Model the fold of this input.
Amino acid sequence: MKKLAVFVVILLFVYCAAYGVARWRKCIVMNRYEVKEQHLLVRHTAPGVDVRKDWKGDFKNKLNPVLYIIFRPLELIEDRLRGGSSRNSPLPVQHQS
Done:
């Protein structure tokens, strides 16, 4: 039983480390956009996009959605902690004189 617990802890550590590498290599990025009507700034994780037009860019663009699905449990935790929506106060209107 103790060996199983150690194995699960090691597996969880490797999973979290791999998620960190995926974030570091921009396979998973934090997207943000503004909802102007409600003055909200929304942040959430999303698959990254590589703009290179060679085989490396094509490979990464095919791999990113797969990594996004694999790491979805940690992304949900990150969305809950760092993401979500926040009030974005509108800029004050400047009157011309």
